[in-house]
Every structure is written in structure tokens, then in C-alpha cells.
Design goal:
The chain is α/β, with parallel strands linked by helices. About 40% of the residues lie in helices and about 20% in strands. Strands 1, 2, 3, 4, 5, 6, 7, 8 and 9 form a 9-stranded mixed β-sheet that branches. Helix 1 links the parallel strand 1 and strand 2. Helix 5 crosses helix 6, helix 7 crosses helix 10 and helix 9 packs antiparallel against helix 10. The two termini are about 15 Å apart.
């Protein structure tokens, strides 16, 4: 097998996703370009860790699966850092525990790393709606709300400011240069704030390594399950507010100029087009047009409110986070 060895990290925290976790691991085992290993990092749930350890100890099919306990504080960032520290691969890829990867997912990642300047590669995440179809009112421009690739991102294999964490990979040396994922920003179960840890890391990486190239390749596809509760406007509103809180922490860490660079383009170019399409569809009596336009406006206002509140909290020292160094496991 040519190219870098790739370790895949899947972070899990609840037995409610048992079948999803098994499906995620199975999709890694079925890759056309085999993973070096799959690391299942369990977030402070000993019952789940023991159950998964038994499941994969008894199974000898496919690539190696290692089950680990999150060695840091509760939350997704520390879980990922635990996986990074234990990984043996030159590249570390991340897959959500409620997603499955298409067969060539790792192959497309590996191809990009033939360029030594490439430090990170992300892919495209497609929503799998519990109801079987996208809600009429839900705008594609806000698919990031459910952890998926949103309308407005560039197509093909292109340079970006940051990758999206649920479908991403990093060269191991990226963490040596920039440290790990910041704790205090990322997900902790269903608590807020709910994201942006990968944004903060990527900006920090670009500062530590100005020559670094970060890419998205939309051929590296995963399918992400969207549960029924996330198809409702109440979740949409809560998640956009949480995004504002998280963006305030990112701006605190790396500065507002870089921390909000992509968001300004998104708000001034992508979203107005979405509102216009929604209003056009409403005039043509197409389902959901007015709802989509209204959701975009509501999402912007709610995220802006979260950003203001988060900024005030950050200035008052009410929310803290830290950037840990990642201790490297001994390589075999």
C-alpha cells in the first residue's frame, strides 16, 4: 500500500448510538484503501467502553480496532486528542460515530497527501434525514447545523481556511506544530457550545505553519445521520445560537479578522442568494420557499445574538479553554 498510513479516530459517548457506531466502524473496514487502524475513543462511559472492547475483541474480521477511554476532560476535543496521541499513522482521520464513509473515502484523503505541504484534508458530508427527506423549510445553506456540508462551500479539491471536523484528516505533524484540539470549545454530549474546535485548530495550524495547505476534496464522502429531533426549528435555533457562542471563543483565540474571515463571505454572498431563492420559490408557489428564506434570516440573527453573548462572557472570563500539547504514543 503506497502513501501514508492512516489511523481513523471515531469518538463515541452514548450507547444510544450503538448500531451507528458499529456501522461507522464497518464502513472504515470496507475501505478500498485500508486504514492502518481504527481507534474508538469512548468519552467517560465505562459501560460503553467495556461493551465495545468486548465486541471488537471477539471480532477478528477486517482491520485492527482499538477501544480507548478518553484520557482528558469530558468532551469531543479531548476525545480526539486521546485518539491522536494513540494513533500510529502518519495521517489521522476523523469520522463521526453516527456517520458512514463511502468506500473510497480514505483513498481520496491519501491522494492529497502526496504533496508534502498538505497538512489537512476534509471531505463532503451528506445528511441522511430521519424522516426520509429534507424538511421543506430547512435551507441547504444551513446544513452545518446538522453537521453536514452546506451550500456555499467550494466544489472539487480546493484550498480552504478550515476543514469540518466530522469528516476530516490531518497529517500527524500538524499536531506537533500546533497542538491538539482546544478543550472548552467543542462538543460535550448535547451541551453548548457545540462546535468550531476544528476551525480554531486549522487557523492556529496555519499560523504555526504558514506554508501549510488545507484542502477539501468533495469526493471524500460520508453520510451523516440526522435524527428526527434535529429536523425541527427549535433545534435549528438552539444550534445557530450555540454556533455564535463558539465563534466568539474562536475569535478570542485567533482574532476576529481570521476567525470570522470565511463567515463574512458566507453572510454577505451565500446567504443573500439563499434568501432570494427562497422568496422566488414562494412567488412561484413552490413548497417551503418562504420558510427557507425566513429560516436563513432567523439563523443569522440567532447566531449573531450568540456571538454577542459569547463575546461578553469571554471578556468577563466566564468561559475558558486551553490548547493541549499532544503526547505521541510509541510507534510500532
Amino acid at each position: 500500500m503506497s502513501g501514508p498510513g492512516i489511523s481513523v479516530v471515531i469518538c463515541a459517548y452514548t450507547e444510544d448510538r450503538w448500531e451507528d457506531i458499529l456501522a461507522a466502524v464497518s464502513s472504515v473496514r470496507a475501505q478500498s484503501r485500508p486504514a492502518l487502524e481504527t481507534l474508538l475513543v469512548v468519552d467517560h462511559n465505562e459501560t460503553l467502553r467495556e461493551r465495545l472492547a468486548k465486541e471488537y475483541k471477539e471480532s477478528s474480521e477486517g482491520s485492527v480496532v482499538r477501544v480507548l477511554a478518553n484520557a482528558g476532560p469530558r468532551g469531543l476535543s479531548a476525545g480526539r486528542n486521546t485518539g491522536i496521541a494513540a494513533a500510529r499513522g502518519e495521517v489521522v482521520a476523523f469520522l463521526d460515530d453516527d456517520a458512514v464513509a463511502e468506500r473510497d473515502w480514505l483513498r481520496h484523503f491519501a491522494e492529497a497527501y502526496t504533496d508534502e505541504r498538505v497538512m489537512a484534508v476534509g471531505g463532503r458530508t451528506v445528511p441522511v434525514w430521519a424522516s426520509g427527506r429534507r424538511p421543506h423549510w430547512f435551507p441547504e445553506e444551513f446544513d452545518w447545523v446538522v453537521g453536514c456540508t452546506y451550500r456555499g462551500l467550494p466544489r472539487g479539491r480546493v484550498r480552504v481556511r478550515n476543514v469540518l471536523g466530522g469528516n476530516a484528516s490531518f497529517r500527524r505533524s500538524a499536531f506537533d506544530a500546533a497542538g491538539g484540539f482546544a478543550t472548552g470549545i467543542g462538543r460535550d454530549g448535547d451541551k453548548r457550545p457545540l462546535g468550531c474546535e476544528e476551525t480554531e485548530l486549522c487557523i492556529r495550524l496555519s499560523r504555526a505553519r504558514p506554508d501549510a495547505v488545507l484542502l477539501i476534496d468533495d469526493r471524500a464522502v460520508i453520510h451523516h445521520r440526522v435524527p428526527e429531533i434535529r429536523e425541527h426549528f427549535r433545534y435549528f435555533r438552539t444550534r445557530t445560537y450555540a454556533e455564535g457562542l463558539s465563534k466568539a471563543l474562536v475569535a478570542r483565540s485567533v482574532g476576529a479578522d481570521k476567525g470570522l474571515e470565511s463567515e463574512r463571505r458566507y453572510a454577505t454572498r451565500v446567504l443573500p442568494g439563499g434568501v432570494a431563492r427562497g422568496l422566488r420559490d414562494a412567488l412561484l408557489a413552490r413548497p417551503g420557499g418562504a420558510g427557507r428564506a425566513g429560516a436563513i434570516v432567523a439563523g443569522v440573527l440567532t447566531a449573531a445574538g450568540g456571538y454577542v453573548v459569547g463575546s461578553v462572557r469571554a471578556r468577563r472570563g466566564g468561559t475558558t479553554f486551553r490548547v493541549p500539547a499532544v503526547e505521541v504514543a510509541a510507534r510500532e
